[in-house]
Write a structure and sequence with these properties.
Blueprint lengths: L1 H28 L2 H10 L1 H29 L4 H25 L5
């Protein structure tokens, strides 16, 4: 329990720093319109980046599944549920990205 709280307390400041950097970059680096145009131009590169991350996650999941299959086969249903929910969230995110492509500023 203590370890979990420590991880959460470490994650919160990191997320706040990332949010502050993002906010400052939007404030001082240019208008939101320019960011949208830049993101629109980088759409294919960002898709390739996301596909690389998804393949890395799939490889890690397969590795974890093989390890759990040997050590604790009773945990496999939980791991499979996590994988299904991860896929659902991943698909919802990609659908959201696809729907936003039609937006024009």
């Amino acid at each position: 329990m203590r370890r979990r709280v420590k991880n959460i307390l470490t994650l919160i400041p990191a997320l706040l720093v990332v949010a502050a950097i993002a906010g400052l970059s939007v404030r001082f680096a240019g208008q939101t319109l320019h960011w949208r145009e830049t993101l629109k131009q980088a759409r294919v590169a960002l898709l390739i980046w996301r596909l690389c991350l998804y393949s890395l996650m799939a490889g890690l999941w397969l590795s974890l599944r093989q390890r759990w299959l040997k050590q604790a086969p009773a945990r496999l249903p939980a791991l499979n549920r996590m994988a299904v929910w991860s896929l659902v969230l991943l698909l919802l995110g990609e659908i959201s990205n696809g729907l936003q492509e039609g937006d024009t500023p």
